[in-house]
Please model this.
Amino acid sequence: MKREHFLILLFLLVCGAFFYLFYSIIAPFFVPIAWATVFGILFYPLYERVRGWVKSRGLASLIVCVLIVVLIIGPLGYLFFALVGEARDAVVKVNELYQTGKLQELL
Model:
């Protein structure tokens, strides 16, 4: 193998390793970036409308962000915590049925 081929192969291996490490660092952020893109596309018309009422771009952005939190993220958070509470109650009930032996009858 010529020296040039070896250097090219070494360069490609180093680039591949850097790409893998970069991907490993960035991968956890793909889902939040996707949701931010979806919210940005969905709420841009609302931002433009608020921007017509308010002359400051920053204030219009703040108003739209607060609306998103209050109207979407707030209720979803409430539903999430309600679901966690129901799951906790279900686990307690299943444990009670298991300890009394009634779980086998239900299955």
Notes: The chain has four helices and no strands. Residues 31-106 form one domain. The chain has a mean pLDDT of 92. The chain has one domain: 31-106.
